What we know:
five-stranded parallel β-sheet, 4 domains
Amino acid sequence: MDDRNDGILLDESQEQDESLMDLLGIEDDSEDIELMKGAAEHGKEEGILKLGMAYLHGQGVEQDFAEACYWFEQSRDAMAMVQIAQIHDKEGNEELAMEYYRRAVSAPEDRFGGFRASACINLALKLCAEDPEEADRYLRQAADFGVPEDCREMEYKLAGILGRVFVKLGNLEKALEWFRFSVEGHDDPDVRGQMALACSEGMKQDPDSVLYKDSLEGMEYLANKGEKLAVMKVFQFWNRNRDLPESPAKFKEWLVKAADFGSEFPQFLLAQEYLGVKNRRTDLPEDIGLARKYFDACRGWLLTAENGADMAARFERALNAKEEGGMSGDARQENKVPERILEQEEAEEIVERMSRTGDRVLVIPEGVTGIGSRAFDSRASKKLKYTKNIESIRFPDSVREIDTWAFARMDSLKEITLPPHLKYLGKDAFSGDWVNFINLWVRDKRTFQCIEIPACTELEEDALFGIHRIMTLRFLEGRKVLDWKFLGDKAWIGEVIVPDSVEKMIPYNPSYRKIRIEKFSLPSKLKGQFQECIGKYSPKARAEFR
Length: 546
């Protein structure tokens, strides 16, 4: 697209010319024309302008552009210079048109008002593609002169064009300034979108820079006008920057706005806030009805996200428990929202203390009931880099859930002792796999002597993904059903011990996985299920039936 956009070139309308002729008192009268000529020949400014307009429009004389230009040349008024410029514009003489627009800008008089500003806008429009800095100067000068009301819309459109030009030149400061000016005066959705993209680029700069702050302010302005990209960008900013003094209030404000705008991730966060989860970030009062409303709104999106189905199921259970309210004490204890989730922010503090003391045993604090997603994942934060030195983890009995990637990439981890009342173990919870800087997959090299799985633990699909060498994997007595979906790709297991309590095994589908298990120890009642569930996928495995 040509940024000059001749389609919006300013041109005084016939209606405006008629208004000028009325002001000048020009009539189609030969006697009046003679009086004009007399006055013009004696250097009277009013006579000069009247006569020039008469020849321009053929009012009382034969229309003659050359004669009109001759008399306008004698004038000191910006209006006369604009009339000559427009004649050359219509004849396609660009250089002469620009010369007379410039003369209009510097004209000593502008008795009708607005013609200097009009000339500035025409010059800015003609120059914005070839010399945007000069166009910038003229557009600012137009504002100083005072743009007449009938030229305002063109001024705002030109500001939007100039903003796009400065984006292409990489001058985001001026681009944002002109976009903002354009949107404030003429709310064009296309310019809003361009401004949002420019603000997004500006927010990639140094957070202490003026550009960054102007971009954030511009993004908030657009977000308040309903620009979708801006709403999410502002929410993401306050979601990330928790340490700023105004962060708590701003996060709450934009969490609600983004959720009401229809963005699914904020809807899920807001549902959790209204449900009353621990470690929440707002002071919103608990409201089960609103928790249900926002959860239902984002459920479809959540089910398509990684591990979303599991998160949705757990949230649904917690929500149902709150809604039912009158259930028995045991059931309430089973389904209640975890009392304390250890999230990444707290994990960073713990790891920072360990790095100072050189401790290699991670002790989870008493009272913690859940470990949040990626809480100790060294890839999630530079502050967690020391986790690569951790050799073992001690859990309090209170821990009920370990979420996705909670302890990922602990390269020195030697033992995993799961808490006895663990209800849920998420995908890749202890994974040692990672992708390096040249995008190559680096496999786990650790060896675990024994991992024991409590009977009450629900194993998410791929729960042990990223653990490639286990000498003994023992399922503790009390488990009724054993679903093999937890196994990870390229895993080697020396022995799997299945307790007598297991009554049913659910086969896994290793369509893309290479899993080797040397030996199975299981009750004789499962002999029939063994071949269907595991034997045909691990034909070299030895099975010992008790």
